[in-house]
Amino acid sequence: MSRQKQGGKPAETKDGGTLAAAHTTASGQRQTDILSAGSPGLSAWLKEHGEEPFRAGQILRWVCQRQADSFEEMTDIKKDLRERLARDFVVPRLALLDQAESGDGSVKYLFGLSDGQAVEAVLMAERDHYTLCVSSQVGCAMGCAFCRTGAMGLSRNLTAGEIVAQVRDALTLAPGKMRLTNLVFMGMGEPLANYDNLVAAITLLMDADRGFAFAGRKVTVSTAGIAPNIPRLGRDTRASLAVSLNAVDDALRTRLMPINATYPIEDLLAACNRFPLQKGRRITFEYVLLAGVNDSVTEAKKLASLLHPKRAKVNLIPYNPHDASPFSRPSERAVRDFQQVLLDRHYTTVIRKSRGADIHAACGQLRAKALGE
Known about the structure:
The protein is an alpha/beta fold. The protein contains ten helices and 15 strands. It has helices at 34-48, 55-64, 79-88, 160-173, 195-206, 229-236, 250-256, 265-273, 297-307, 332-344, and strands at 2-4, 32-33, 89-90, 95-101, 107-112, 118-125, 130-133, 137-139, 154-157, 180-185, 219-223, 240-244, 283-289, 312-318, 348-351.
């Protein structure tokens, strides 16, 4: 079922302002998105204006933990400071342009951005919690042959605030009583190609005091293979790493994923070896199974050898068909046989259940379009 919100126009906040993440007032006053500023930017502003930096914690707790939509709501902050904050900062909401609900309980949100662009995020219902699939770019430049988002090309990076705002808004939109506890950066875009904004967003999302207190084990960043940024991610955040591998030789992987021509499998796995793993953690290798292309038992055996002796987990993803790709989904038997090879070699191997395929919200299917297209 698809349900459009307010005819595609931004909904309203509690104080009547629009939810669009605008950064310029009607009078031309330039404002900073407070989620993009985060703790460092806000602390610097407070110091510059003769205020104690600890106020940054108070302000961000209101925005992140109490879901305040205006500075006027921040009753433990003096009035003159609230007025100055309102002149220089905006508390952003994304415009909820549309949402589609899947038969499996998943919800796909189409979020409008302040420049008229749009991105999609997917809320996935698990047994006792929600996982949100978060976008990091408008479109994607990776051009993976099996991915619907890649067919869009890249429009631009999302700001840190736009990344965080997807999570902030989903916390208020999630139906029922289950909590949103897990984040996967597997939506639109290549997260490691928007590295600085990604890290700034993750820092605020994981900040237990001032931010959203997501645990490192519960936040996963998936990459198509921007090798130089893989070790950096492990040093700069506590996020978990997932690598979209999808082939066991360079010729096929380059055909499926053009990024492999720049960072071939050997370089990619070497970068994974430099990713600092905390105790008990493993790197997840994602493998999209394409019928007759990479789904044979022979490929499974090569994959097991390629990953040895890494602390690795394998997520098998039976291909989700879409109209921009010539590939087809493998048979259930082929998927099980592939999995068994890896299980026999003692790799934890999960067949990922597609969520939201009936609303084009499954892995590789996201492609934000303006309403009416």
